[in-house]
Amino acid sequence: MMMQKISRARIAFTATVFTLLPGLAFAQDGSANDYKGWVAIAAGIAIGLSALGGGFGQGRAAAAALEGIARNPSASDKIFTPMIVGLALIESLVIYGLVIAFLLQGKI
């Protein structure tokens, strides 16, 4: 019997559905404060995704800079300063995510 290959996208979709679907079983009837749970989830997602993206971006930037310095050590001064500026700009986007999370938390 041949087994089919399951793609990563299908696995991710299935995991997402089975993670979010049980919440519907505990759903209540509509009320004025119904949105607060979603705001809390949005705040968590905002900081989580911004930290994840910032971490990946900083890792790739630092790896590229270190590879450039390893290939040409005399160019380390020319590579180091733009790398620090780039890392600061990446980190500023993470801080924006944190600010958005705090603003959303204020609405709970």
Tally of individual helices: 3
What is the strand tally? 0
- Uncertain regions spanning at least 5 consecutive residues: none
Which CATH C-level class of the domain at 58-108 is it? Answer: Mainly Alpha
Name given to the CATH homologous superfamily of the domain at 58-108: F1F0 ATP synthase subunit C
Sheet bearing the most strands, described?
none
Average pLDDT taken over every residue: 81
Second rung of CATH, namely the architecture of the domain at 58-108: Up-down Bundle
Give the topology string: H per helix, E per strand. Answer: HHH
The share of residues in extended strands comes to: under 5%
Structural shape: elongated
Distance between the termini: 53 Å
Rg, Å, rounded = 21 Å
Give the assembly state of these chains.
Answer: single chain
Q: What is the CATH fold-level name of the domain at 58-108?
A: F1FO ATP Synthase
Sheet/helix structural class: mainly alpha
Helix content: over 70%
Describe what you observe in this structure.
This protein has 108 residues and is an all-alpha fold. The chain has a domain at 58-108: F1F0 ATP synthase subunit C (F1FO ATP Synthase), CATH 1.20.20. The chain contains three helices and no strands. The protein has helices spanning 8-20, 36-71, 76-105. The protein is elongated. The chain starts with 7 loop residues before the first helix and ends with a helix. The model has no long low-confidence stretch (mean pLDDT 81).
